[in-house]
Write a structure and sequence with these properties.
Helix content: 40-55%
Shape: globular
Strand content: 15-25%
Strand order of the largest sheet: 9-10-11-12-14-13
Number of domains: 2
Number of strands: 14
Largest sheet: 6 strands, mixed
Length: 409
């Protein structure tokens, strides 16, 4: 059993909000959190149950109206029945008791077309990601809080390449994290993908090429951590550019991929405006591409690309543990100077992070950080190179090289 840091946020929201929605990838642990929180007298209904789904589909208004008013109601996988949101709105307008409905779903609620208006001001959405390193290791998360304060974190763990290879292949879903045998880890991910294609994508998407979604996911696994060209992607999967963008948006809605947008400013015109794509889990990417520990250990270019995705996902998870709203970007300009990850706080201050799989740092590795620092000036809070080295080193004002292991303490 893993301690999930967002559980306290869910409990707090239930104290003053009529509807709380926990959303995140399938098999990420939503149901476990609900069972930890729900009272014994709560009523639990899952729309993965075909009988319950059929009853609710036939009369969504009557289904909600007939639920007992004296019990907290838990509705699981509500994205399978978007019509239920309007019925919940009507019920909440009659009785705004906090914590009346606890919902879970494997699709982003904010993107469901029938939700945007129906539960505005009545619902709080909380995203549950896959496990963070802090949750796996049962440690208190400190890295992101420290760099937001302008502090360069320290760590006693050094040279963690073998550990990272293991973690990249295992991924961060609770079930495969607990498996040791590589073949069993990849078997889980392949079954996971098959379930998503056959069930959730069919439920959510009015798409004509269901089989193509598997191929698109395989191609996106090759692009994880790279700039994405939608026309090029379309050629690889036999779809036009607009259809590819539509399908990627659907995969985002199901928490399978994440688009990292380019940072921009009116003060500097030579910026590339192409987004990057990251799969939400490196275990998923490895299983899709047939990559195991041995191949990553002997192909540093494969390891480096997946390491960037691994760190990006970890930082996004840590951002969900804190209350400050953060925005994530990447930086690249027409001179091919780039920075892997930018984190912008509510004041517009930037933390720049460059990720290197090597154990040594050269002056060239600082190029992107220094250029960005010159552009944003006082808004540049911290520049970090994460590398697989022995110790933290300062490279002047607000610039540091830090061992990768500092990311998880």
């Amino acid at each position: 059993m893993f301690t999930r840091f967002i559980e306290s946020k869910v409990r707090e929201a239930l104290l003053d909000t009529p509807v709380v929605f926990i959303m995140g990838p399938r098999q990420s642990g939503k149901t476990t959190i609900v069972k930890n929180i729900a009272h014994e007298d709560s009523l639990y209904i899952t729309f993965d149950d075909a009988a319950q789904l059929h009853i609710a589909q036939s009369d969504p208004v009557g289904f909600i109206r007939n639920l007992p008013s004296h019990k907290a109601i838990v509705l699981d996988e509500v994205q399978r029945l978007p019509d239920v949101f309007v019925s919940i709105k009507q019920s909440v307008d009659e009785n705004r008791t906090p914590g009346r409905f606890l919902l879970t779903g494997s699709a982003n609620a904010l993107l469901l077309p029938k939700l945007s208006d129906s539960l505005a001001g009545r619902m709080e959405s909380i995203t549950l990601s896959t496990l963070s390193e802090y949750e796996i290791l049962d440690r208190e998360p400190v890295f992101l809080q420290q760099i937001l304060q302008g502090i360069a974190p320290e760590t006693k763990e050094i040279r963690v390449r073998d550990y990272l290879i293991h973690r990249i292949v295992s991924g961060c879903f609770p079930e495969p994290v607990q498996r040791e045998k590589e073949s069993r880890i990849q078997a889980w991910y392949k079954g996971y993908i098959q379930t998503l294609i056959q069930k959730d994508i069919r439920d959510l998407g009015h798409i004509e090429h269901h089989d193509t979604m598997t191929l698109l996911l395989e191609v996106l696994a090759l692009y994880s951590g790279k700039l994405v060209n939608f026309s090029e992607l379309g050629e690889k999967v036999g779809l036009n550019r607009l259809t590819v963008k539509k399908y990627i948006a659907l995969l985002e809605q199901l928490f399978l991929v994440d688009t990292l947008h380019p940072w921009h400013t009116n003060a500097y015109k030579r910026l590339i405006k192409t987004p990057k794509i990251h799969l939400i889990d490196t275990g998923l990417a490895c299983a899709t591409r047939g990559l195991g520990r041995e191949k990553l250990a002997t192909h540093p270019e494969l390891f480096g690309a997946l390491l960037e995705t691994f760190i990006f996902n970890e930082l996004k998870k840590q951002a969900s543990f804190i209350d400050e709203g953060l925005r994530f970007y990447h930086y690249r300009d027409k001179d091919q100077v780039e920075v892997d990850i930018l984190i912008e706080n509510s004041l517009g201050e930037l933390i720049a992070i460059e990720i290197k799989s090597a154990a040594t740092i050269t002056g060239k590795d600082l190029t992107g950080l220094k250029k960005l620092k010159d552009i944003v000036k006082d808004k540049f809070k911290l520049g970090i190179i994460l590398y697989d080295g022995d110790h933290s080193t300062s490279f002047g004002s607000h610039l540091f090289a830090i061992p990768i292991a500092a990311v998880w303490g």
